[in-house]
Amino acid sequence: ACKNVLNRILHQPVSKLFWNSVEDLLLAENTHPLSLRTIHEKLEGNTYLSPLEFVLDMHQIFLNADAHRSKKILRSPAADFLLSEFESAVEEYSIFTSDISRHLHTLSRDFSIKPPPKADQDLNSNGHDLNKTDNANSSDEKIASIFSPGEPSIEGIHENLLLLKGHPFFLEAIFFIHSLKPETISLDNTTKLHLSLLDEEQIPIIHNKIAELIYAAARGKTSL
Q: Could you tell me the residue ranges of all domains in the chain?
């Protein structure tokens, strides 16, 4: 099913802009340089452990669209078009169960974050439902005004992820967490991130990465 989805993308002429796009990225400013060729090779080599890894790699292609050299000005609108095609193909070829497919096209808005171990209740019951936008940043200035990095902790990661809600960097943060600890993401009736599964040594690494993303968002950036 993942191969069918990728083939749908590769049949679009604009996909050629992303086939060998790694060499055109400003690598010093992008931590996840990817190309469609790389994803194709990973699929052919059966190196993906789950469909979710494929989906996150594809989303990274779209996140990278603004990080290419300015001479490749077609890449940003091309990525918007391919993202729409990608979401349609995922639904058509049923990569996930119907429940997951229903949520995939709004991945950055529908993620729910399971609270730290000391708070057993669901986020919906303590006012931090990520499907609502009242805690989300409405502007870059708001991010800058309310963000304080603090000491690395699961609670801090949770709160700082809420600040990125609705910003393109939210998926970047999720991708980074997943790359360090894939089992933090569960796929049931909705897609959830279980921060309590993080290893102690991973917490400061993730904390610093999210702080970097928030500072970049406050400067008006949409890609690193």
A: 2-104, 107-218
Determine how β-strand 191-194 pairs with β-strand 112-114.
Answer: parallel
Question: What mean pLDDT do residues 203-212 have?
Answer: 88
Range with the poorest average pLDDT among 10-19, 63-72, 82-91: 63-72
What pLDDT score was predicted for residue 137?
A: 40
Give the separation between CA 88 and CA 187, rounded to whole angstroms: 19
| Average confidence (pLDDT) over 142-167 | 71
Place of tokens 């529908």: 110
In this prediction, residue 190 carries a pLDDT of: 54
So what CATH class is 2-104? Answer: mainly alpha
158 or 142, which is more confident: 158
